[in-house]
Design goal:
Layout (H helix, E strand, L loop, with lengths): L18 H18 L4 H20 L26 H15 L2 H10 L18 H10 L5 H24 L15 H16 L1
């Protein structure tokens, strides 16, 4: 309810483990372990343990796992039925485990998911519900990923931005958003398009 927090007596609960959110957490922790390594070895090691623990859980549970909402009306986002695919989240986890720890099994997992629609060109501007673009763009920027994967990632990026380039060329304000894309989340969509256009130009 919209009220002072002290007046909110709603029943609260703690969710269990779900696969989409675990995959996202795995990706974040693996990347954090890599980025913090030069500055804080202890914190980096903590992040690495968390990432590897999440990755091990994902390998034991290749199926989609959702948690019990206990009757709550709170949306479960990509752990709920509204967003049935989590291939993008699992791909992001696989890439970051590969990138941070050079785990060949993670690379194999990522390659197996590469044909999924969440990693296709149309999915590179997928918003918060599909983070598969981070796997594709990560491969593109990682010199130790296989050359064939980097070439495919580059091709998908160019395919993704092509219609946005046409939109910019014809829009009076040179904006990449179509008229139907102006809604409450449009700033996020625009910034994602701008980032991908800048990467493609580079």
């Amino acid at each position: 309810p919209i009220c002072d927090a002290s007046l909110d007596h709603s029943e609260r609960w703690v969710s269990g483990i779900a696969s989409a959110s675990t995959a996202k957490a795995c990706a974040v922790m693996a990347k954090a372990a890599r980025l913090y390594r030069p500055f804080d070895r202890k914190l980096s090691e903590d992040y690495a343990r968390a990432a590897k623990k999440a990755w091990a859980w994902l390998q034991k549970h290749p199926e989609r796992v959702s948690f019990d909402a206990h009757g709550s009306e709170q949306p479960m986002w990509d752990d709920g039925s509204e967003y049935p695919s989590e291939q993008g989240s699992r791909a992001a986890a696989a890439f970051e485990i590969w990138r941070s720890f050079r785990d060949p099994a993670a690379l194999k997992d990522l390659q197996a998911r590469s044909a999924d629609t969440q990693l296709a060109a149309d999915g590179l501007n997928g918003g918060w519900s599909n983070v598969g673009r981070f796997a594709v763009l990560g491969v593109l920027s990682d010199p130790q990923s296989p050359a064939t994967m980097r070439d495919e990632a580059r091709a998908r990026l160019f395919e993704a931005v092509k219609p946005w380039q046409a939109q910019v060329a014809t829009d009076g304000y040179r904006c990449a958003l179509r008229p139907d894309e102006y809604y409450w989340g449009s700033p996020c969509v625009l910034m994602e398009k701008a980032a991908l256009l800048a990467l493609a130009a580079r």
